[in-house]
Specification:
Elements lengths: L3 E2 L8 E11 L5 E11 L9 E3 L4 E7 L2 E3 L2 E2 L3 E3 L7 E9 L9 E5 L2 E5 L18 E9 L4 E4 L2 E6 L2 E11 L5 E4 L1 E9 L5 E9 L7 H18 L7 E7 L6 E2 L4 E5 L12 H16 L8 E2 L5 H19 L2 H20 L11 E2 L8 H18 L1 H15 L3 E2 L1 H12 L8 H4 L5 E9 L2 E9 L14 E8 L5 E10 L3 E6 L7 E4 L8 E3 L4 H10 L3 H22 L5 H11 L6 H9 L4 H10 L6 H18 L4 H7 L10 H21 L2 H9 L3 H13 L4 H11 L3 H14 L2 H12 L9 H13 L1 H4 L5 H13 L4 H7 L11 H16 L5 H11 L1
Parallel strand pairs: 2-12, 18-19, 19-21, 22-24, 25-31
Antiparallel strand pairs: 1-23, 2-3, 3-9, 4-8, 5-6, 5-9, 7-8, 10-11, 11-16, 12-15, 13-16, 14-15, 17-18, 20-21, 25-26, 26-29, 27-28, 27-30
Helix pairs in contact: 1-2, 2-3, 3-4, 3-5, 4-5, 4-10, 5-6, 6-7, 9-10, 9-11, 10-12, 11-12, 12-16, 13-14, 14-16, 15-16, 16-18, 17-18, 18-20, 19-20, 20-21, 20-22, 24-26, 25-27, 26-27
The chain binds diaminopropanoic acid and zinc ion.
Zinc ion binds next to helix 3.
Length: 845
């Protein structure tokens, strides 16, 4: 397949006024009858009439009531059409029961549901399936199933049918339909202007007891969007449906969000604190799309970050407001570095707004989403909160109802601030993570900070230009007092100096406060300075960052020089651990958030060394024992102090305590053979405590009884079983990881057609770095075998998991050869999908 290019965009030849769809649902022979009103687009040069359509059986087609015989290919159809407005009608047959790709209309546990983003609507009926064709939809569903849902507001319904009308013009990717035997959990919300909205979360029987938290999160999201962005909901009803088989996290279909059940269903017994937090965030994310995505959508899929970057930014703000801003910023930075920086460093690097793609599904990436959100955060820092709010207001009024572009988005900032955004736009067009080198000097009371920036070449982009980088800094006096509070420096050149006058002694700089830009800072600070910042920085993010940098330095020295961990570092951890003035969640991030094995491998590689995943793994094992020994006098006290009495609450403060308590537990388990963990397992009344205990036991090579008990207790709960599968793979020693995967994939509850279950096993496997990278190549072969099996069933999920191979160039010749061979084997699969083929080709490039 040929790539398509942003530069080749042309407007649609025909526009659509309205769409009428009738669905006669049947597992293998669903009929879809469409009636669509088309008119020629005056802005388009071409008059060719083309409708996308894939895997459809065309029964008949008519134009203005007259039967026609279109030219049908695998990708769609063409036919002659009148010069003026006309009505297209067609009937197609589709097979939802055999749709294992989970794109278009498919079945999951006896229910029908749809996933149309990005290009799934063309598997439902013939249509111009592109986001710049927006229309009003009326939908009739015929089925005996009790719950029949589509977008918009319900109109008429009766025995065996229901009709829906969505008054808001929308692109086809926001179409949705659900039919099933589902139970609603209901509430209502009154908007700021007094409009009543019915809220429902639909789940399978038995799961209706696990919807309350998501419903509460939805109401808080609706209130927050009114208060912070002035955005109200715009239909009479808002429905959410939980589905077990789902490729992604969730989908923002207008008025009918469809969710992977993992991001909706929660009870204290079945969901962890982390699950509750991600449910809150994903509910908010999809709800916020109603304005940033639905009311204002994307002109084409190259503009995906227009809706995703902004909506991720908004959900991050929301979580920061609901919980701890500092902890949320740390968590977001950790995730960005783990996934997006890694992507930027390898063969899959691409700009936030890509310039070409073969399969758009391969571009729902950390770069588009998370770096896209960072770009918005930088804009906000650069223009200030007030101008940001003004720009957003202008964006919503100017583009409501539009399919917009990044140019449109940047224009509102230019118009509101008078600032030229040309250079800033490089954040959207240039791939790669900028690296900033910091040097400083002090003379006659003047402190000078020199910053230089450099971005390394990425595929297709050998030469990089300087970007606009907001670098928030603060200066501390050697006694720990802050002499210059947080100040925003704007780095726009390759190299720039910033001076601060009137200082009595050389200050200690705190650079990139609050992680003010998605960049890598190279700053040669010594251990003492880092320890000083860990103790004194007033910026919570940089306080954490100092601890993290120390930990990284310690691990690097352990790996390269085979030395014991620096006692100053261990003392620093102890000081944080016992500092009861610090929020437990924040302490947990400092003490528990070790650098990732993958990050150490990348650092070694950048130093010109060849990382040995097994040596890195062993270093961490040693370090953790050393930390456990060094802190052994305080961990039992912290553990006891962090136990939360009373009934479970998913709120941030209780969750933070459990998180620090469970870090103490994992340290204690290194020394007590799992005694405390076994006790916690036996008495746990919530999943956070139960799973942490099981994980600590398995990590010590024990826990056989608890593993069996957990299975017996939860075998009927799919989402809990996903945890049971994943924790075994995640805690397996490297030598045992592949064997664990092999035995779990033979388990009767393993089902590769369920993406959550597949990821629980094979996703956890690539996360077990040393196990995946076993020198004999067994890990690579095992993953390749499974991706080859999964590809014909579910290309999207298979393609996404090929990213496990994206760091192959870091390793020794032997591992490289094994990885390349595994990738080539996947590429030679005669049943290979376009999705996977594109990924492998990019990976091997
Ligand atoms: N548009 C979805 C989301 O990110 C992805 N399928 O919310
Ligand atoms: Zn989204």
């Amino acid at each position: 397949p040929q790539p398509i290019y942003l530069k080749d965009y042309t407007p649609p030849a025909y526009l659509v006024d309205d769409v009428h769809l009738t669905f006669q649902l049947s597992p293998n022979t669903t009929r879809v009858i469409s009636r669509v009103r088309f008119c020629k687009n005056p802005d388009a040069a071409s008059a060719e009439f083309f409708l996308h359509g894939e895997d459809l059986r065309l029964m008949w087609a008519k134009i203005d009531g007259v039967s026609i015989a279109p030219d049908v290919t695998e990708k769609g159809l063409t036919c002659d059409v009148p010069a003026n407005a006309f009505t297209w009608e067609a009937e197609v047959e589709i097979d939802p029961a055999n749709n294992t790709a989970l794109e278009g209309l498919y079945m999951s546990n006896g229910m029908y549901c749809t996933q149309c983003e990005a290009e799934g609507f063309r598997k439902i009926t013939y249509f111009p399936d592109r986001p710049d064709v927006m229309a009003v939809y009326t939908v009739r569903i015929e089925s005996d199933l009790p719950v029949l849902l589509s977008n918009g507001n319900p109109t008429v319904s009766g025995a065996g049918f229901a009709e829906w009308h969505d008054p808001w013009p929308k692109p086809s990717y926001l179409f949705a339909l659900v039919a099933g035997d589902l139970i609603p959990t209901s509430d209502q919300f009154t908007t700021a202007s007094g409009k009543d909205v019915a809220l429902n979360i639909y789940a399978r029987k038995g799961d209706e007891t696990k919807c309350a938290y998501a419903l509460d999160a939805l109401k808080r999201s609706m209130t927050w969007d009114e208060n912070v962005y002035g955005r109200e909901y715009d239909l009479d009803i808002f429905n959410i449906v939980a589905v077990d088989d789902f490729n992604a996290g969730a989908m923002e279909n207008k008025g009918l969000n469809i969710f992977n059940s993992a991001y909706v269903l929660a009870s204290p017994e079945t969901a962890t604190d982390a699950n509750f937090e991600s449910i809150e965030a994903v509910i908010a994310h999809e709800y916020f799309h109603n304005w940033t995505g639905n009311r204002i959508t994307c002109r084409d899929w190259f503009q995906l970050c227009l809706k995703e970057g902004l909506t991720v930014f908004r959900d991050q703000q929301f979580t920061g407001d609901m919980r701890s801003k500092a902890v949320k910023r740390i968590d977001d930075a950790v995730a960005l570095r783990a996934y997006q920086f890694r992507e930027d460093n390898g063969p899959l690097a691409h700009p936030v707004r890509p310039e070409s793609f073969v399969e758009i599904n391969n571009f729902y990436t950390a770069t588009v989403y998370e770096k896209g959100a960072e770009v918005i955060g930088m804009l906000k820092r650069l223009v200030g909160d007030e101008k940001y709010a003004e720009a957003l207001d202008l964006y919503f009024t100017r583009h409501d109802g539009d399919a917009a572009t990044i140019e449109d988005w940047l224009a509102v900032f230019e118009d509101v601030t008078g600032r030229d955004m040309t250079q800033f736009k490089r954040w959207y067009t240039q791939a790669g993570t900028p690296r900033i080198t910091v040097t400083d000097s002090f003379e006659n009371g003047t402190y000078t900070l020199k910053l230089t920036q450099e971005t390394r070449p990425t595929p297709g982009q050998p030469d990089k230009k300087p970007q606009v980088i907001p670098v928030a800094i603060g200066l501390l006096a050697p006694d720990g007092t802050e002499v210059v509070p947080t100040t925003m420096l704007e780095l726009t050149e390759d190299a720039q100096s910033f001076t601060f006058e009137g200082l009595t002694e050389k200050p200690v700089p705190s650079i990139l406060r609050d992680f003010s830009a998605p960049v890598i800072i190279n700053h040669d600070q010594d251990t003492k300075t880092r320890a000083f910042l860990l103790a004194h920085d007033t910026d919570p993010f940089n306080r954490w960052e100092a601890g993290h940098a120390l930990a990284t330095e310690v691990v690097m020295r352990m790996v390269t020089d085979d030395v014991a961990p620096d006692p100053a570092f261990l003392d620093g951890l102890a000081a944080v651990m016992r500092d009861d003035n610090l929020d437990p969640a924040f302490r947990a991030r400092i003490v528990g958030e070790m650098p990732r094995q993958d990050d150490i491998a990348q650092r070694l590689f950048e130093q010109g060394r060849t990382p040995d995943p097994m040596a890195i793994y062993r270093t961490f094992e040693t370090l953790k024992v050393q930390i456990a020994l060094h802190l052994q006098d305080i961990t039992p006290r912290i553990y006891a102090a962090m136990q939360v009495p009373g009934s479970y609450s998913p709120a941030a403060d209780a969750a933070g305590k459990r998180s620090l308590g469970n870090i103490a537990l994992s340290l204690m388990s290194r020394l007590d053979g799992g005694k405390q963990a076994a006790q916690q397992y036996a008495t746990a009344d919530n999943m956070t405590q139960q799973l942490a205990a099981l994980s600590a036991l398995l990590k010590q090579g024990g826990g056989a009884d608890q593993r069996a008990d957990f299975f017996q207790q939860w075998r009927h709960e799919k989402l809990v079983m996903d945890k049971w599968f994943a924790v075994q793979v995640g805690t397996a020693a490297p030598e045992d990881a592949a064997a664990t995967v092999k035995s779990l994939t033979k388990h009767p509850l393993f089902d590769m057609r369920n993406p959550n279950r597949f990821r629980a096993v094979l996703g956890a496997f690539s996360g077990n770095a040393a196990g995946f990278h076993m020198a004999d190549g067994s890990g690579y072969n095992l993953l390749a075998d499974w991706l080859i099996k999964l590809d014909p069933v579910n290309p999207q999920t298979a393609a996404r998991m090929t990213t496990a191979f994206d760091s192959w160039k870091r390793y020794d010749a032997n591992r490289q050869a094994h990885m390349v061979a595994a990738l080539q084997r996947i590429l030679k699969n005669p049943e290979i999908s376009g999705d996977v083929a594109e990924m492998i080709t990019r990976l091997l490039d």
